[in-house]
Amino acid sequence: MTEYTPGAIVQIAYVVDDVRAAAEDFASRTGAGPFFVRRNQVTSALGPDGTAGSFDHSSAYGQWGHTQIEFVEVHSAEPAAFAQTALVSNHIHHVAIMVSSFGDQQRQFADSGWPAVLTATTPNGNNFAFHDARAQLGHLVEIYEPRPTILALYRRVADAAVDWDGRDPVRDM
Predict the structure, then answer these.
(1) Dihedral over alpha carbons 97, 103, 109, 113 (to 10 degrees)
(2) 3-state DSSP call for residue 55?
(3) 119 has which bridge partners?
(4) Tens digits of residue pLDDT in 66-105
């Protein structure tokens, strides 16, 4: 994905107990994939009140049509406001959108009643946040800007799906 429409959904993510098993099952049922697994991604984070926390998770990323699918296996999550959204398996955890301005979108969502339950920066320097839209949508909304490393991940996943023959549905990154 080298082009994006600000605010368009680019990813749907599900919390699962085992990312490899979930990705294999999903690929066999839908033909989506292949899926790429990243284990134990640990990110320092801040909760809604500025409380320090962290998010340790493994993910499997695959392509389903024009949308990336992510399966998330949570190993630990803090602070409590985020943990209660992240530790319930087998549901949509979040949809992700790319935004033109991280700060502007954070303010807009917070002002509209969707506060951030977790704000963090990846080791690559990419900001991301989960905003609580559960009362209206039943899940969180993740935001991030289309920075080079994020775009490279989306491109790698999408390119692997082109003419994929269904073999080797789950791979390590």
Answers:
(1) 150
(2) strand
(3) 46, 129
(4) 999 999 999 988 888 788 777 777 789 999 999 999 999 9
Q: Superfamily for 9-165?
A: 2,3-Dihydroxybiphenyl 1,2-Dioxygenase, domain 1 (3.10.180.10)
Which pair of tokens denotes residue 158? 């999408």
Extents of the domains making up the chain: 9-165
Q: CB under 8 Å to 145, separation ≥6 — which residues? A: 98, 99, 100, 101, 102, 126, 127
What tokens does 26 get?
A: 């999903």
**Residue 73 is which amino acid?**
E
pTM over 0.85: yes
Given a cut of 70, whether residue 1 has pLDDT beyond it is no
Look-up of token digits 């790698």:
156
